[in-house]
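Aim 2, interim progress. The first record below pairs a target sequence with its C-alpha cells.
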Amino acid sequence: MNKYRTHNCAELTVKNSGENVILSGWVHKKRDHGNLLFIDLRDNYGTTQCITEKNKPFFKELEKMQLESVIKINGTVSKRSPETINKDLKTGEIEIIIVSYEILGTCKELPLPVFSDQEYAEEIRLKYRFLDLRRKRIHSNILLRAKVISFIREEMNKVGFIEFQTPILTSSSPEGARDFIVPSRLNPGKFYALPQAPQQFKQLIMVSGFDKYFQIAPCFRDEDARADRSPGEFYQLDLEMSFVEQEDVFNVVESLLSKIFKKFSKKKFLDDKFPRISYKESMLKYATDKPDLRNPLKIYDLTTIFERSDVNFEIFKKLVKSGSIVRAIVTKNTKDKPRSFFDNLDKWAKLEGSSGLAYFTFENNKKLEAKGPVGKFFSSDALTEIMKVTGGKIGDSIFFSCGKETDVLQLMSSAREKIAQELNLIDENLFAFCWIVDYPMYETDNITGKIKFSHNPFSMPQGKEKDLNFENPLEIKAYQYDIVCNGVELSSGAIRNHKPELMYKLFEIAGYSKSEVEKKFKGMINALSYGAPPHGGIAPGIDRIIMLLAEEKNIREVTLFPMNQTAQDLMMNAPSEISEKQLKELNIIIKKK
C-alpha cells in the first residue's frame, strides 16, 4: 500500500462509508465552528472535507496551520447528513473523521490567495506561477490542454498520420518574424536559430517519402506579446500531407477540429460545414481576414454613391475624387435608439484615431428621407440606391467612413465588433468556423512600394504555370488558406510549391536573385530538385484552440509557464546575464551602451 494515500481527493463516496483511509494533499480552506474544525483537503483530482473535534489533541495544531501546507490525514469515511451534502463536490456526500495527521510540507505566508480565482497582479502571478497553477480555474485549463493534446494524437494516429520530431537548432529564416539566435561554440562567429515553425523540415519529410506527418511542435518567435500570442514560444499542431489538394487538407482539419470542439465544449456550431470565404470577399464584407461570423453585421462599399450629383456630402465627395473609399455598416431597426447611441459610436471612432463615423436612419415621411446629422445631403433617389446596395429598410441605420483603404478597413472592422457589442448581437454559446481562401500571392509594401510575398513564400500559385500572369503579379492567387473561429485565426496553411524552377520565378518577383534563393533556402531547393511530391499542410495553434475551449481572453491563462509582456520569466529570472567564461567559450563580446 502507498504510504501517502489509499485514495485521491476525488474518489471517495458513500460506498466507502466506515472505511479507514489515508489522504494527502494541500490545506485548501479551513472553517472553525468552535467545537468543530473543517479542513478542505485538495489534490490534483479534487477536494475532500475533513473534520475534527475540539477535544482532539491535534485540534489546535490544525487550527493554526498555514493554508497550502501539505499534510497526510488518516481517518474514517463518514456519510454526511442530508442538509450538509455539497452537490458541487464529487466527494460532497462524505467527510473524513480525522484520526491522525502528519505534516509533509510546510508553507510560508502566501503572496497570493490560492483558494479563489480572483484577478491578481500579473507580476505576482508569474513570479509565483507554481502557486498560481494551484488555483482551480487555471489548474483546470492546464489539465484541459493536456487532454486536448492527447486526444489530438489519438485522432491523428487513427487517420494514418505519423508523429516525427524536427530539429530545434536550425538556420535563420529571412521570412516571417524575428528569430531567436543561438551562438555556436564549435563554429565561432556562426549562429543557429530556434525554429519559427518546422516549415522547411516538414516539407523535407514529404520529399523523404513519408506520406502523412504531424507533430505537437514548439515554435519560437521573437515577437511582442499580445492577448492571443505569447512572447517567445508557442505550440502548434503541425501537419503535412503528400499527393493532396487544398480540399484534402480541409477535410482532415475540419473533421479534427469538429471532434475537438464537440468533445471538450458544450457550445453549438454556427455551421457544421465550415464556410469557404475568399480573401477578397472577407475584406469587403468584414474588413478583416479574421471575421467573427457570430456577428451578423456586414460591411458594404458605398464609394460610387458619392460620385452621384444628388449627393451633396462635399467632404466625402472630395475625398472619393482623390482616391478614398467609403464603407458602411447597416444596423437593423435602430430607429428608436437614443441620440446618445449614435453619438457615442461617433466619439468612439474618433478615439480610435479616425475622423468619426457619419450616420443616418432611413425614414418614410411621405417620401424616403434620412434622419441624422448628414441625412440632409442625400436625395430620395440616392437613399433608394443605398438601400438597394445594403439591403437596408425603413427604420435601419447606416454608419459609414471615408478615407484611405487601410484606415477605413481597420476602423470598420473594429466598428463592426463595437456595434455588435452595443446591440448585444453576438451569441457567446456558438463556435463559428470558416476557411479564408484565395489569398493573393503578393502585395505591395506600404513603405517601400515594392512587391513582396503576402503570406507564405513557399506556396503554390493557383492555375497552370504557363497561364500565370507574371507581368501583373498582384493578380496571382495562391493556394493559401486560414482557418478562423470566432474572429480568432487558428492557423495558416498552404499547398506547397514543389517545383524549383517555378520557385525561382516567384522569388525573383519579390526581389530575390537565384543565388540568394539558393543560399537562403539551400536545403529546401536542393531537396526539391530530387523528385518532390505535390504536398500541403497547415498548423493550428494549440494555445488558441485551448483559449477558445476554456473561454479565456488571454493566452497566459492556458500556458503552463508563460513570460510577461516584455518576454521575461519572472519565476526563473530569464533572460539573465551569463559569465565571462561562457561568453569567452562562445567567442562573444558584449558591448555596453
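The second target in this work package is listed in the same format:
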Amino acid sequence: MLLSVIIAAIALLVGGGIGIWLATSVLKNKLLAKSQQVLKDAEERGEVIKKEKVLQAKEECMRMKGECDKDIAERNSKMQGAERKLKQREQSLNQQVSELQKKNNDLKNASENLNNQIEVLHKRQAEVEKIYQESVHKLEHIANLSAEEAKRQLIEMMKDEAKAEASSSIMDIVEEAKITANEQAKKIVIQSIQRTATEHAIENTVSVFNLENEEVKGRIIGREGRNIRTLEALTGVEVIIDDSPDAIILSGFDPIRREIARLSLHKLVTDGRIHPARIEEVVAKTRKQIEQEIIEVGKRTCIDLGILNMHHELTRMVGRMKFRSSYGQNLLQHSREVANLAATMASELGLNPKLAKRAGLLHDIGKVPDNEPELPHAILGMKLAEKYKEHADVCNAIGAHHDEVEMTSLIAPIIQVCDAISGARPGARREVVEAYINRLNKLEEMAMTYPGVVKTYAIQAGRELRVIVGADKINDVEATKLSYDLSRQIQNEMTYPGQIKVTVIRETRAINYAK
C-alpha cells in the first residue's frame, strides 16, 4: 500500500515536471518569436531613419554647396570689380604720368626760354645803364650841374612842397579844432543854462498844481492879493494864476523851493484855512519836512550803494540831487547809475570798486550846493569833497570828469567814461522838441545836397533816413556810394543818440501808352 502511494507520488511528480517543462518550452518559443519580431521591426525603423538622415544630409550638403557657390560668385564679382578699378587707376596713373612728362618737357622748354630772355634782359640792362650814364653826362653838361647838385635842388623842392602840404594840414586841423571848440562852447553854455535855469529852460523851472474847482483860486489869491504875496515871499517861487482851467503854475529856478511851494499849497487847500499866518506856519513845516526827506534820501542812497562813513553834509547834498535834473535826466538816478557802472568797470580792471562807486555818486555834487559860486561844477564838487575829507583819488575823479584838472588816478578816467555812458545812452536825457525837429530837418537837407536826390524822408523819430534818387541820374554803384558818403557825413557832422540807418532807393519805371 505504502509502496503504491510512493509510486503514485513519484508518478505525479514526474508528470508535473514534464508539464512544467512543456509549458516552459512553449513560453520560451513565444518569447523568442516576439523578440525576433521586435528585432525585425527595429531593423525596419532603423532603415527608415537611416534613409531620412541620408536625405537630410544630402539636402544640407546641397544647401551648403549653394551657399558656397553664391559666396564664390560674390567674391569673384568683387574681385572683378577690384580688377576693373585697378585697371582704371592704372590707366589714370599712366595718363597722369604722360601729362607730367609733357609738363616737365614744357617746363624745360620754358626754363630754356626764360634763360634766354634773362640773358637778353641782362644785355638790354647793360645797354640801358650805358645810355643812362651817357644821358646823365649830357644833362650835367647841358645844365652845368652835377648829379649831387641836382639831387640837393630836388630835395629842397620836396621840402618846400612838404612845408606847403604841412601848412595846409595845419590849417585843416585848426579849422577842425575851431569846430570842436564851438561844440565844447555850446556844451558849456547848455550846462550853464541848466545850472542857472534861465527862462529858456522852462520845462525844468515850472510845476503845475491842479485844483478841484475854480473857486479855490480866489481863496489862494486872498483879499487884495495878500495870500499869494505871502506865499511867494516865503517860498521864493512865483505863483502864476492865469486862465488855465483848474491849474496853478509854480515858477522858480530852485526845484526844492518849487516842491516846498507845491506841498504847502496842497496842505493849505486840503485844510481850507488860507491866510498869511497859516501860510507862514505851513511853509515852515513843509520846509522842515523837505529837509528831513533830503537827509533820508541821502542816507538811503548811501545804504543802497554800500557807501559808509560819508560826511553828513555830503549825504545831504546827495539827497538834494533828487530834486535836480540835467537835460531832463534826474541827477540822483544819473549819479547812482554812474556809481554802479564805475564799480563794475573798476572791478573788471582790478581797481578798488568802493572808491570808484563813491566817486561816481559824488561826481556831480557841484550842481547842488547851498550857494552858487562862480566855478565849474566839477571844480566846485572837488573842493567840497576835499573840504569834507574825501579820499584824494575821489576828489581828483570829481574834478577831472570834465577835464578841468589833470587826472592823477586810474579812477578818474573811469568816472569820465561812465558819466558819458550814462548821459549818452539812448533815452537817458530828454531832447527838446525844437532840437528834435531841427535834427530831422538837417538830416533831410543834408541828403538833398547830393546830386541826383529827388526826395528825402527822416522817419522812425530820426533813426532812419530814406533817400529817393532818380533812376536816370544815378546808377546802382553810385547809389551805394551815396549811401556810404551820406552816412559818413552824418556821423561826422551831427550829434544824435543811437544810430541812423541810411537807405537809398533807386526805382526804374517803364511807362508806355496804348493808343
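DSSP finds 14 helices and eight strands in the chain. This observation will shape the mutagenesis plan for the next reporting period.
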